[in-house]
Amino acid sequence: MKDQSTLLSVRNLRTEFQTQNGPVKVVDGVSFDVGRGKIVGLVGESGSGKSMTALSLMGLVSSPPGKVSADGVFLDGTNLTQLHPDEMRRKRGREVSMVFQEPMTSLNPVKTMVQQVGEPLAIHTDMGRRAIRENVLRMFETVGIPEPAARLDVYPHQLSGGLRQRAMIAMGLICEPKLLIADEPTTALDVTTQAQILRLMMALRDRVGTAIIMITHDLGIIAEMCDEVNVMYAGQIVEQASVFDLFDRPSHPYTRGLLASIPKATEKRTTERLNSIPGVVPNLAKLPQGCRFHPRCGDAMPVCQVQQPELTDLGNGHKARCWLHNKQGGKL
Amino acid sequence: MTQFAETTEDFTDDTGDDSYFRDALRIFASNRMAMVGLILVGALIFVALFIPFISPHDPYRVALDEQFLPPSATYWLGTDNFGRDLLTRILYGARISLVVGIVPSFISLMIGAVMGIISGYYGGRIDFIIMRLADTMIAFPSLLLAMVVMYTLGANLFNIFIALSLVGWAGVARVVRAQALAVKEREFIEAARANGTKKRAIMIGHIFPNVIPTLIVLFSLSIPDAIMWESSLSFLGVGVQPPEASWGLLVAKGKEYLFSAPLVAIIPGVAILITVLAFNFVGDGLRDALDPYMKD
């Protein structure tokens, strides 16, 4: 906020859902910053709360049963948590937009491409039909849709997955938002298309200057695209670092586990099995006492079973939520 | 501007430009029963529209010396108790039956669609209130309800519309609500919300178009229902009043002469039967054609 280079500042974001078994915290005290024009990664296994973090930021968690609270979510100095829902709605699509995981289902099957991709313009500007059409056409060119003019009046089912995801990105960027949240934008695509989409997003970031929050479970994408990374586990950030620090000095055992589970082409296989982290993400309604990761952690100490570690600063903005790095840890 | 274009990008994976509705049309056209129904319905609508120019007889002219004539070259289906040409009366009756079939169905469809979408999309208390209201309408003996409306407001065509719409919307609302619940959970609704689309615009622009195929089927299937309803009400004497000709009324009047001149009651009954069947065939055909799960 004070810092001009910070676009988004999330402070202590908490999202919980009311269930029959009581409230479940799916996002628990998440804080991170996104610099202008930066790409920030949110990485974690399924169920780690990364998508919920994004939906909470967008104000898209329906309440009830959901409940979002935060000490502040500052976008360009405006605290989004204090906005009236209608003011927040006006920011969506214009200042913050989102690209979803499934290009197959994220487009309404009964609307033509120009109707859908132009929808944010129709909502947020007083552009006429023709102006919207021209804008969509230009955006289609920008995102590299071949024969863009011929794609305006077709229905989503007439396009391939890659084209649809390009159209989704076009829709997300058509109002030139300050921030684009991409929720696993390439998970549903094949590998060559994935690479194209990622390259496209980086190129657009360089050109339009839109900051991107990249949600993924793929550390390869993080390494290739992101400036900063937040590793999430069970609704919390467990490690926060620049991309270089994270891959150079992974400090949380969970991050190390994730990195170790990537098969390396150069490595001589000694075993047939890939490395994996034992166990699964805990049920958020029945979190283990102490560190949420300790039942799966190879480095677990007695203290880990008793008390939850805080994020410890390792210098240079590198933080990890682990007793291994906390001086008090051994004493407790 | 195209520096990001990838040459390896795959193109449209569809061979033709056939859309959902073109597919549906093809399936419908290959359904023989549906086509028979469609031809019958079309013929009925045509005749009903142009009957004043086709028939040489006046449906209201009383000729007491020509009572209960058997079918002949002049009177193809014979005459009724006032010596009026039965065929002409039936075809004039088709006008009323068609209007009564289409208008209230359309009204209850619209009410039901609005209620169903609101109910499904908002959920919670609004859903509860609308659905309990619909339950009440469904639980109430609908013939009784319609008769009460007709008695209170008077027996005329407009009030038949009101009575039938009142009876019909609840069933539509339930079906549409179920559809809206399913559509609401699809990702493109979330994407629309992420674009800052207003709730009303989501309901009108995103949910409603996805409910249209269902509405078309409900419409075609509720027309025969409404025709039956009108016939029942007219038969019971609270519908269309003489000397207007409606099928239910013709059957009601004809039943007094069932033993001396059975055709006077039977033929309008057959007309109801054929029309209802024809609309049902069309409705079934539409359902098969528009149901995405039954394709290929």
Comma- or semicolon-separated keywords:
heterodimer; A: alpha/beta; Rossmann fold; 5-stranded antiparallel β-sheet; B: 296 residues; mainly alpha; disordered N terminus
Give the C-alpha Rg of chain B.
Answer: 24 Å
Strand order of the largest sheet of chain A: 7-8-9-3-10-11-13-12
CATH C-level name of the domain at 6-234 in chain A? Alpha Beta
Count the beta strands of chain A: 13
CATH superfamily of chain B: MetI-like
Helix content of chain A: 25-40%
Give the termini distance of chain B in whole angstroms: 41 Å
Mean pLDDT of chain B: 81
Give the topology.
The complex is a heterodimer of chains A (332) and B (296).
Chain A lengths: L5 E14 L2 E14 L3 E5 L6 H9 L7 E4 L2 E4 L2 E2 L5 H7 L4 E4 L13 H5 L1 H6 L4 H14 L18 H13 L5 E5 L7 H18 L2 E6 L2 H7 L2 E6 L2 E7 H6 L4 H8 L51 E2 L5 E2 L12
Parallel strand pairs in A: 3-9, 3-10, 7-8, 8-9
Antiparallel strand pairs in A: 1-2, 1-4, 1-5, 5-6, 10-11, 11-13, 12-13
Helix pairs in contact in A: 5-6, 6-7
Chain B lengths: L19 H10 L2 H23 L31 H37 L1 H16 L2 H12 L3 H28 L2 H8 L4 H37 L11 H8 L8 H28 L6
Describe the structure.
The complex is a heterodimer of chains A (332) and B (296). Chain A is α/β, with parallel strands linked by helices. Chain A has a domain at 6-234: P-loop containing nucleotide triphosphate hydrolases (Rossmann fold, 3-Layer(aba) Sandwich), CATH 3.40.50. In chain A, 28% of the residues lie in helices and 23% in strands. Chain A is built from 10 helices and 13 strands. Chain A has helices at residues 50-58, 85-91, 113-117, 119-124, 129-142, 161-173, 191-208, 219-225, 243-248, 253-260; strands at residues 6-19, 22-35, 39-43, 66-69, 72-75, 78-79, 96-99, 179-183, 211-216, 228-233, 236-242, 312-313, 319-320. In chain A, a hairpin with a 2-residue loop joins strand 10 (228-233) and strand 11. In chain A, helix 5 packs across helix 6 and helix 6 packs parallel to helix 7 (191-208). Chain B starts with 19 loop residues before the first helix and ends in a 6-residue tail after the last helix. The model of chain B is unreliable at 1-17 (pLDDT under 50). Chain B is built from 10 helices and no strands. The longest helix of chain B is centred in the middle third of the chain and has 37 residues, at 86-122. The interface between A and B is large, with 50 and 35 residues.
